[in-house]
């Protein structure tokens, strides 16, 4: 059971990192001439990301071991992810993880996040806002896959 909990934490950490990569605070200092268009897009995306989200879907690109698949399945509809512009906090069944994140790029409804875990590993995530949902694609192994977060009311 201890091994399962460690695997779940790793799974959730990576999933969270991917999700966290979706939130981001890429705000730099202001200049005398005001922020450029790219910076303004990053700030808007970061502001849209702030708040509490629920993980409602995640489909890994590669099949997970049965135990990990079951643990991931238990988090769907239960894992809450909060973004504050700099930190992501994910809390679910037996899971609590905090990660830093940055919005690397943004345009329109799309964004590219980089999430950093507690040992310094980074995870790339791209996402698209669709109403109250954030559809995302985690691009970094071992947690490559696609999923969806829904804003919590």
Descriptive terms for the model:
single chain; 153 residues; alpha+beta; 8 strands; 27% helix; globular; disordered N terminus
Model description:
With 153 residues, the protein is of the alpha+beta class. Helices cover 27% and strands 41% of the residues. Strands 1-2-3-4-5-6-7-8 form an eight-stranded antiparallel barrel. α1 packs across α3 (66-75). The longest helix is centred in the N-terminal third of the chain and has 19 residues, at 2-20. The radius of gyration is 15 Å and the shape is globular. It starts with a helix and ends with a strand. Mean pLDDT is 83; it is low at 1-9 and 11-34.
Give the count of helical stretches. 3
**Uncertain stretches:** 1-9, 11-34
**Distance, first to last CA:** 34 Å
Biggest pleated-sheet summary: 8 strands, antiparallel, barrel
- Describe the global form: globular
Order of strands across the widest beta sheet? 1-2-3-4-5-6-7-8
Helix content: 25-40%
- Average pLDDT for all residues: 83
Which structural class do you get from the secondary structure elements? alpha+beta
